[in-house]
Specification:
With 244 residues, the chain is of the alpha/beta class. Helices cover 40% and strands 16% of the residues. The chain contains nine helices and ten strands. Strand 2 and strand 3 form a beta hairpin. Helix 1 crosses helix 2, helix 6 packs across helix 7 and helix 6 crosses helix 9.
Length: 244
């Protein structure tokens, strides 16, 4: 039985709107940003059709995040670097349009990425589509460059622990000081299991004179929630627990 096609609606939505946002000179030194919503809707619809063509037998569902995000309570500076960044004009209404015209799923307290990670079932043949590299921390089949790739559990874990080491400047959490992608790759090259990878991560933070709790904060910021990591009854995420 065909599975689901889980789409990261936030990345595709922002791309569609941003591509159709323009500066407008109204004269008398008065400028605004304007968005051609019709073109943005057409661009988004075209993108969804292209994804559906790649996985034609799958049922498309768009994942969207909620207004609140549990990572703010994990690390107070999470995405604080984005406070002054302007979102494309009209994004809130565009999300409402998406919800009116497409099957969507959201959960309280999490991002759209988490919705996908919680629901995408690799064993059922589900497919994941996102413009965000963070989703590669989720095992399963992903759409990439117009085709399909398979991310194994080892690869997903490896990318997660890489992110826990390097942090993410776009999301405002720094990771381990002095550990960039090349250094992280070198540290993790001989680790084969999640337990070994976490030991490497913990060792790097310890060497940097940072606590286990700080390492855990960074890992929880990096963690895209997976199946079983959300309490559906109480509508709250379950914080990641390290394998040690």
């Amino acid at each position: 039985m065909p599975g689901m096609l889980w789409v990261d609606g936030e990345t595709y939505g922002v791309r569609a709107v941003k591509a159709n946002e323009h500066e407008c000179d109204w004269g008398n030194d008065y400028w605004t940003y304007v968005v051609d919503y019709n073109r943005a809707k057409e661009a988004f619809t075209s993108a969804m059709n292209e994804l559906q063509d790649i996985a034609p037998d799958h049922s498309l569902v768009i994942a969207l995040g909620s207004r609140n995000n549990f990572r703010y309570s994990v690390y107070s500076k999470y995405k604080s670097n984005r406070v002054k960044q302007r979102k494309p004009a009209g994004m809130s209404d565009f999300y409402l349009w998406m919800q009116d015209h497409w099957p969507c799923q959201t959960y309280n307290g999490v991002e759209g990425d988490d919705v996908i990670g919680i629901n995408a079932d690799a064993d059922n043949g589900d497919v994941i589509a996102s413009l965000d590299k963070d989703l590669k921390t989720i095992r399963g089949v992903h759409i990439e460059r117009g085709g399909l790739i398979d991310v194994s559990e080892y690869e997903a874990d490896y990318k997660f622990y890489m992110q826990a080491l390097t942090g993410d400047s776009a999301d405002g959490y720094p990771g381990c000081p002095g550990v960039g992608p090349k250094r992280a790759e070198n540290l993790l090259k001989d680790a084969k299991t999640a337990e070994e990878m976490w030991a490497v991560v913990l060792g790097a933070y310890t060497k940097a004179h940072l606590s286990r709790n700080y390492a855990l904060q960074m890992a929880r910021c990096a963690r895209i929630l997976r199946a079983g990591e959300y309490d559906m009854d109480n509508e709250r995420p379950l914080l990641w627990q390290p394998p040690d």
